[in-house]
Amino acid sequence: MLKTKAFQDYFPGNRCFGCGPSNPIGHRIKSFWYDELKEITVCIWQPQLWFAAATPDILHGGTSGSLIDCHAIWTAMATRYKRENRAFGSPPYLWWDVTRNFSIDLMKKVPTDQGHLEILAKAVEMDDHKAIVEARIMLHGEEKVFGRVVAVSTKPSQEMMDLLLHPSPWFEKMALTFKILKYLGKSHGIF
Question: What does the alpha-carbon distance between residue 175 and residue 189 come to, in Å, rounded to a whole number?
Answer without folding.
Answer: 21
